[in-house]
Amino acid sequence: MPDTDWKDKLRCSFCHKKSTDVDKLVAGPGVHICDQCIGLCNEILEGENLASSTEPRLPAWETMTDEQILDHLPKIAAVQVQVDDNLRDWVAHLRGRDVSWERIGVSLGMTRQSAWERFKSET
Ligand SMILES: [Zn+2]
């Protein structure tokens, strides 16, 4: 696909901004984080009481209205799609290395047949 397509498609898994709307997008295992969210995380870490038992969350539920949380749900669903796409990319990369469906299935806790059915390329 053209260079701009994947850049348009990739979004920060935390704030849902497009990669084209941020300076840097760092890829993790199926997720991405932008430079702005990394900045927020750093602020949280710097202000964090180490004894705190609550898990820091971006965005923080406590600061959000019901409407804002509802507005966030489709973004989480979109992240799920992005993670699925990314998993597909990782499997395709392994297939490019001639790694068997058997081994991919074992890694994902599914049968060789299930792995093939889920990840075979459509072409
Ligand atoms: Zn972000």
Protein described:
The longest helix is centred in the middle third of the chain and has 31 residues, at 66-96. This protein has a two-stranded antiparallel sheet with strand order 1-2. α4 (101-108) crosses α5 (112-119). The chain is elongated. The protein has two domains: 1-61, no CATH class; 64-123. The model has no long low-confidence stretch (mean pLDDT 86). The chain has helices at 3-9, 35-47, 66-96, 101-108, 112-119, and strands spanning 25-27, 32-34. Helices cover 54% and strands 5% of the residues. By secondary structure, the chain is mainly α. The protein binds zinc ion. Zinc ion is lined by residues 12, 14-15, 17, 33-34, 36-37. One of its GO terms (biological process) is protein folding. Keywords: Chaperone, Metal-binding, Zinc. Belongs to the ClpX chaperone family. GO terms for molecular function: protein dimerization activity; unfolded protein binding; zinc ion binding. This is ClpX-type ZB domain-containing protein.
